[in-house]
Amino acid sequence: MVDMVKPAFRAAIVGAGYMGALHARVLAEAGFAELALVVDPSPAAATLAGQHGAEHAPSLDGLVGRTDIDAVVVAAPDRLHAEIAIALLDDGKSVLLEKPIAHTGAAAQAVVEAAERSGGRLLVGHTVRFDPRYVDLAQAVADGELGQCVHVTAGRLTHAALGRRVGAMTNTALHLGIHDIDAIQWIAQDPIARVHAVRADGGLTGGAAPEDATFCTVELASAGVGHLFFGWSRPDDWPNPIDSRFEFNGTAGVGRVVSHDDGGMVYTTRPRYLEAVYGRVTNGVVTGAHYETLRHFFTALTTDAPFVVEPESAAAAVRVCDAIARSLETGQPETVSHGGNT
Ligand SMILES: NC(=O)c1ccc[n+]([C@@H]2O[C@H](COP(=O)([O-])OP(=O)(O)OC[C@H]3O[C@@H](n4cnc5c(N)ncnc54)[C@H](O)[C@@H]3O)[C@@H](O)[C@H]2O)c1
Hints:
The protein is of the alpha/beta class and 342 residues long. The chain contains nine helices and 17 strands. It starts with 8 loop residues before the first strand and ends in a 7-residue tail after the last strand. Nicotinamide-adenine-dinucleotide is lined by residues 14-20, 39-42, 75-78, 80, 98-99, 125, 127, 165-166, 175.
């Protein structure tokens, strides 16, 4: 913990629900920045701000134009990301924007352009880029250890409760699949060119979300095919929040990440797998991939180093979501428009 040194940055958090509160905790524990302001219309956000000695504002009007705040973490609902990020980037702020970069390919392109003209910088929080297992696998592929892609599988399943909580402002592709879509394009170093998607709805979210799960075949632009799966279709007492899988089958070998149990469990009448990677807490302090995301953001701002996630690659993942949405509508395979706006 860096608790003796005054942080170099004054930060705001926009959206103080589950992720915003986690980011606030990491900022307080790690000392990357002083949390000066929490922006969220919810009364609970005022309480969170008070706990951290920060001001509270119900809307962005309380943040835009303030010159005493230089960095902003945005953890508002998915559908609001583009509008909020563009306002902040045009105000010269540096922004750590939770995934997805935007809710449509066109909006994602607008965010990319805002980042290009801004005096601030944009990192999109694709947490898998900070999961050491995926990072090592990406390196093995980049080093040519596994040869050329033959087929690739990626996906994640989580509790139906998440779909009931956030489903009105997003869908399974944008909220969950975005991680796996990005992982395929990043690790295989090849854009997804065509998708054919179907969805399942057993009413698990009571209609709060557009579907329970989505399944999708993919064709990569250069070499390889694959499939994606993502859903909030696990029972709420499933023993871990994210059950994810990534498998790259290449001409020279196979690389795999299976997050099923992370190697530890507590077995009682409510069994649970022990969290090892994402919201990992060690000796009372958050130390996992969410911590690493914030550390990277503030370190790269300090040193001027490049971010590991370029805005354009985050936008490319959303363009695949657009094609998935079109395929769900038409029932046909759909081409991904990687040329820019969809
Ligand atoms: N990187 C990851 O692994 C990861 C994990 C979970 C969630 N997320 C992302 O984090 C974001 C937040 O997810 P969550 O689970 O915390 O959701 P949440 O519903 O718990 O929190 C969202 C918060 O945003 C607030 N909000 C609504 N409208 C707002 C506005 N106009 N301005 C400011 N705040 C507003 C809500 O009051 C709420 O407090 C989502 O974009 C989600 O995709 C990322």
